[in-house]
Design goal:
Blueprint (H helix, E strand, L loop, with lengths): L4 H5 L11 H7 L5 E2 L5 E2 L1 H4 L22 H16 L2 E2 L6 E2 L1 H5 L5 H19 L4 H18 L4 H9 L1 H15 L4
Antiparallel strand pairs: 1-2, 3-4
Helix pairs in contact: 4-6, 4-9, 6-7, 6-9, 7-8, 7-9
């Protein structure tokens, strides 16, 4: 059975004579339109489309560049925990993070996790960490990255060494010694 171009370009009418159910539901509303917050949407505002569509993250945007010092520190700690100690191996007390999981992808996984770890060091430097502290943090990241490239043994090392948690601990000790402003 072949289909003509007219059948493709113009929709068929249903056998009952009225339009399809999808077409009739578009033209006549069967009650109020409610948004995800439970507020009623006026039908005339639906014709505006996406003209006023935008994301509003508010004051607590974790990706904004104008975070306070405490918010930056909390973000660094949260990412380090996610990378190194987010999960517990069932039946044991061994904690691991997505660093160990992503590291299972040969070479590429270790490059990705090393890049994230380097970003954490950059954030520590932006918080005012001195050169000797960032050098030590870079040493932890380099050791984690180089040993992590070795298949399986490197992944076990990633789980046990926890370079990001070490770096957060170093940063936290340094910050605790600094005078409060």
């Amino acid at each position: 059975m072949t289909v003509s171009d007219d059948d493709i370009l113009t929709p068929r009418r249903s056998r009952s004579g009225s339009g399809s159910r999808a077409n009739s539901s578009r033209t006549e509303a069967r009650g109020p339109i409610i948004d995800q917050d439970g507020r009623e949407i006026r039908p005339e505002t639906l014709d505006q489309g996406f003209q006023q569509f935008r994301f509003e993250f508010g004051k607590d945007n974790p990706f904004a560049g104008n975070l306070t010092r405490e918010q930056r520190i909390a973000r660094i700690e949260a990412i380090a925990k996610l990378l190194d100690v987010a999960f517990v191996l069932p039946g044991t007390n061994i904690r691991y993070g997505i660093d160990g999981l992503i590291g299972l992808i040969p070479v590429v996984g270790d490059i990705i996790t090393t890049a994230i770890s380097l970003w954490l060091v950059r954030e520590a430097r932006a918080l005012g960490a001195p050169w000797y502290l960032t050098t030590r943090m870079l040493g932890n990241v380099a050791l984690d990255g180089v040993v992590g490239i070795v298949p399986f043994a490197g992944d076990a090392f990633d789980v046990m060494f926890r370079a990001n948690m070490r770096n957060v601990r170093l940063l936290r000790r340094w910050l605790d010694k600094q005078p409060r402003i």
